[in-house]
Amino acid sequence: MKTDPHSYDLLALDEIIESYDYETDPVLQEQFRPVEDALWTLIEHYAEGVNDFGFEMAQHLQRTSNDGMHFLIDELGFSQKAGRNFYAANLFQDLGKIHPAYDPHIWNLPHRPTDEERAEKKKHVWRGVEMLEIALADASPELKLHPHVKTVIPAIQLFHHERCDGNGPFGITSDKIGQVIKTVCIVDTKDGDMIQRGHQNEIRDEPTALCRMKSLEAFDDKGKYAGAFDSMLDRYIAYRERISGQEILSNEDRV
Ligand SMILES: [Fe+2]
Ligand SMILES: [Fe+2]
């Protein structure tokens, strides 16, 4: 990877994502669309004949893009164009999962992952950046330097598993994470928690996933999510309650 992950300013990202419009930007339209189409085809068809991970991942990426886009626009006050930029960039959030270094079976384990397997899976955050760099090897300097491909996509790829307590892959803490990354961390965790994995048989609904992310003892008894999110999660839950019309937290669980 050419860029040092610690050189990203994740607070400034909230302004950078407002600085262009994916929909109308001529450089992205003319030069990046073909690259995106090729990468998206790889995602959708990944591991075909082995398992349906590629297809499932494509759906996860579309759901989280949509969820994050609406939260950014409707609740956090980002512009429509910033929301569109987020949608498009987040589609490559987990691109690193289809990196050739992986055995596709790792994404569909019949057991709870071992520490070693977990560490291997975590590498997808920077392997995604590597794959994007390879896909852009012959691109023009103006595309390579465009904020969408130079900063917004790689930042989402690298930091969507950070935790506010600093226990994420790069140890970045809440005070250095802006709204865009906090949003992607929330929508990605929620969606991941609702996906049924090979080793578990229960399907979780959205309120259950959000209560687990709040680390309420009755839902997250192992403390998996304790410290992972800050008050942005409360804001997200209140937003989802408003949108869905159903109560997610009981009164004593509100802060
Ligand atoms: Fe991921
Ligand atoms: Fe993800």
Shape: globular
Tell me the name of the CATH homologous superfamily: Hypothetical protein af1432
> Percent of residues in helical segments?
40-55%
CATH-scheme architecture? Orthogonal Bundle
Which hetero compounds are present in the coordinates? fe (ii) ion
Average of the residue pLDDT scores: 95
Q: Main β-sheet, in a few words?
A: none
Number of helices: 11
List the quaternary state of the chains.
Answer: single chain
The gyration radius over C-alpha positions equals 18 Å
Give the helices and strands as they follow along the chain.
Answer: HHHHHHHHHHH
Secondary-structure map with pairings?
Elements: H1 13-16, H2 26-45, H3 53-75, H4 80-90, H5 115-122, H6 124-135, H7 141-144, H8 147-159, H9 179-194, H10 206-213, H11 231-244
Helix pairs in contact: 2-3, 3-4, 3-9, 4-8, 6-8, 9-10
This protein binds fe (ii) ion (2 copies).
